[in-house]
Each structure stands twice: as structure tokens, then as C-alpha cells.
Amino acid sequence: MGSIAPGRVLLPGLPDPLALVPAERGMEHDMDIEAGNAGEVDTRGTGWFIGYSEWVNAGGANLRHVPQDGSGAGPWVKWFMHPAGHPNGEDKPVSEGRTVSLVAGPPGEFRLEFSRSPAFPAGETVTHMLRRTGDFVVWGEGIYHRAFGIKATCILTIRWRPGE
After folding, report:
1. What range does the domain containing 102 cover?
2. Is residue 9 part of a domain?
3. Has residue 8 been placed in a domain?
4. Burial code of 109-148, b = ≥16 C-beta within 10 A, e = fewer?
């Protein structure tokens, strides 16, 4: 054993607790582990850091990559700090499976609109506002959605296909 830092006491018969954290001690390990910060992972500006997109297939264990060949049913996970004005109602594809979007950071203001039609006709569009940490909306297949970042808001979105 090397020297012990001043103030540290090792009890006889118990392992050194710092020796139990090989990743933080710079030691090699053979476990499939990926770690990072969702806001710092290269998502090519999309926020999707777990899913079937090629940029999550970053080498190593590839634990964030879900094959799109039908063998995976999700989850696909997006963490995105939407600044005010982003997105501003851009077209989104019709939903597959189920999706939940949740305010995952400090309170903000994020509007989601839903419709069975990509035209979002008046009277056939449902609107939900997410403001407080923990506010969420869940929606199913065959629904068009669009989003509006009214105030800066951190949104966590998870998609999955149930029953697969």
C-alpha cells in the first residue's frame, strides 16, 4: 500500500474505499460503462443522446445506441436545454410508440401542441404548457406535435414502443 493521505483512517480488515472506484482513480476495468453529461455529448444539435441515431454509436461499449432494425423498442432519450424561442413550432414527424416530455431543470415555459393533422387546424389542436420542474405530457402513436420554447427550459424527452 502507498501512503495514506493525512486525516484518512483505514480500519483493519476493511478495503480502502478509494480503491473501490477504479474509473475515478484512472484504473482500467472491463465493464461496459459509458458516462458523460447529456448537455455535453455530441448530439449534432438534436439533444438525442440515447437512441438509434448514428452519432450515439460512438465506439467503445456503444451502450447509448439502440439498433433501428426492429430488435429494439427504446428507450430513446433526449435532454435539451431549449433557449427562449427554440424550437418555434418546427414540423415534427408523426409520433411512433409513446413519448413523455418533462421539465427537468429550473422552471421555464415550454408549450407543446398536439393534433391528428399536420396542419394543426384551429379547434382540433390541444395545447399543454410545461412550467414547473416535473411538469410533463405523455402522448401516443399517430399524433403530430410541435413545440415552442417560450422561456428557457430544460426538457427531458423519452420515447419507447410498448409491448415490443
Report:
1. 36-160
2. no
3. no
4. bbbbebbeeeebeeeeeeeeebeeeebbbebeeeebbbbb
The burial class, CB within 10 Å (0-12 / 13-18 / 19+), for 21 is exposed
- 5, three cell numbers: 493521505
Burial call 78-92: b when 16+ CB within 10 Å, e when fewer: bbbbbeeeeeeeeee
For the question of whether the overall pTM of this predicted structure is more than 0.70, the answer is no
- Is 28 domain-assigned? no
Q: What is the pLDDT of residues 112-133, one digit of tens each?
A: 999 999 999 999 999 999 999 9
| 39-80 tens-digit pLDDT | 787 888 887 777 767 766 666 656 676 666 655 577 888 889
Alpha-carbon span 114 to 109, nearest angstrom? 17
The per-residue pLDDT for 84 is: 94
